[in-house]
Amino acid sequence: DIALKKLKCQRIPTIMEEFRREIEMLARIPPHPNVVKFYGASTLEGDMFLVEELAQMSLEELLRLEDVHLSWANRIKIAVDTAAALVQSPHTEPEDHASRSQVC
Q1: Pairing relationship of beta strands 38-44 and 47-53 according to DSSP bridges
Q2: DSSP string covering 34-94, please?
Q3: Of 21, 25, 48, nearest to 35 (Cα)?
């Protein structure tokens, strides 16, 4: 399954630039089992979108579920896996790695 993320506010330059930065960052990330796959994007004005793997839920959503209790071993594994992905992608910014971007 795929997810299509379309930019709605295409007339605001700062939002358009942020969207372009996100696309550039996604294109640089090497494949990793805990990061959604990036398939491609369009940066044409008036038709800006990106195509990526459809995740069941983000780490942020998982952590907010009241009936999910992660053991400390699982929490540490998530932190180590995320750190390993960051080491493999040294050209990204820290804000690019929010918990909403992590896939479980």
Answers
A1: antiparallel
A2: TBPPEEEEEEETTEEEEEEE--S-BHHHHHH-TT----HHHHHHHHHHHHHHHHH-TTS-G
A3: 25
Residue 61: CA atoms inside 13 Å, Cβ hemisphere, count? Answer: 9
User: What's the token pair of residue 81?
Assistant: 């896996």
Mean pLDDT by 10 residues, the chain (104 residues): 84 83 85 84 82 87 84 88 72 50 45
Measured over the CA atoms of residue 26, residue 32, residue 36 and residue 39, the dihedral's sign is positive
- Residue 49 token pair: 């979108």
Q: What is the pTM of this model?
A: 0.58
Tell me which amino acid residue 32 is.
Answer: H
Closest to 50 (Cα-Cα) out of 100, 3, 102, 103: 3
